[in-house]
Amino acid sequence: MPEGLPLRHRPRRNRHVLVMNPDPRATGEENALRRLLILTLGRLARGQYEDISNTEIEQVDAGSETSEALATDLLYREILRSLITFSKFSVGHSEPGALEDVHSTLQRVISLAGPLSESLDGVADTPIVALTTFPGPHHLASLLRISLGAVADNLLVSIPNPNGTDHGAWRDWITREAKRWPLIWENHKAAIATGFLDVGSSMIMTTPTGTGKSTLSGLKIAATLASGKSVLYLAPTHALVSQVEFDLNERLSELAVAQSLDELTLDETVERLPDIAVMTPEKCFALLTFAPHLFQNVGLLVFDEFHLMSAAIDPTSPTGIRADRGSIDAMLCFLQFGQINESSDFLLLSAMISNGSELKDWLENRTGRPFVAFDYEWKPTRQLRGCVVYSHTELWDFTAQLSNGITPDVSVTPYGLFALDSNWLPQPNSPSALKPLSDSPIPLGSGFITRT
User: Fold this and answer.
1) Which of 10, 213, 358, 401: disulfide with 354, CB 3.0–4.6 Å?
2) Torsions phi, psi for 348 (to 5 deg)
3) Is the CATH code 1.10.10.10 the one for domain 164-374?
4) What is the pTM of this model?
5) What are the boundaries of each domain within the chain?
């Protein structure tokens, strides 16, 4: 095990086809056009851009009876048309200039719906000024102009082409994927802004569980495949290898096929690795030893749960650490791959590491490659945290008996203290609850725990 590995563990913490009713009137809104606009806004909020892009509005009859209502509906029709244009761009059905069309259409609605003064001469002895305005379309267009501009920055199709890739292959894959997941999260956007998708860029990703590391790794893998290189994906267990193989084929089958090599024996002949080879570090170390030529075309090594390279802290050991066979094989695999393939990028994934910046320096020194340490705390979900607590009075009696050399004979009532924690909340004052965990007191004991 090389000296100085500075790992510190972090505590665990079908395409839908829009089927439109020929008469989209519904209870609550008799106007067909406005009803369709309401439905479209709901789909927009849910990210169903593919459904919206299939919407036809030219044959929808609003049924307006007055000139004022007709003018309002014409403005709403323009807003609806802008939403359809935006959705088509979001799923790759139109060119980047479509966003300018959306903005100009909404701006035109705002101008037409705004206050219009008209002087009525000859109607009365004193001049009369008539003020005409359409507040509904004006307010909606104003909100959409701002919100769609913000959403556009988080569209999958807005990701720039990574340097060093075949832009045609990358853009084709992005367009297909946008029909399934058109939006990226803010942490995805922050990671992409570092340039880690470019060929020649490596990253240590130590973000918490549930922050979309799989999505980011999929993007990096796709960029590598679009550069003409293959990918090596290391997962710590056989079960995870199978799961990763399935997940990657679900997402990347249009670009390449992921294949597990865990069942491959050293007696079997392999002329080349698959485009996406998935295996455990132990299997990879064996192949690196007996068939190093297989790894010459690998452009990316993804190491999932890479904290497994770290030795465990062991106070009983003379060195203070204990390295098991798994961590040794993982470290040797990583170092030997770097010696055999000096041009490959690395993507190291773990939610268990708290000192990513320190590890970045260590890896750059070991590999001679630049790394980006990415630890973005935001996550889209709330987390329920809890601990067991006891009454201070009951614990005082317990510790008093221990101090007097008496075997404690104290029964206590355990409580669970639960709190909701969410990184997207601006304030840490999240709700909490204190609940008993037992209907009756239970004996509290003492002793020593020996780790083997």
Assistant:
1) 10
2) -105, 125
3) no
4) 0.76
5) 32-152, 164-374, 383-444
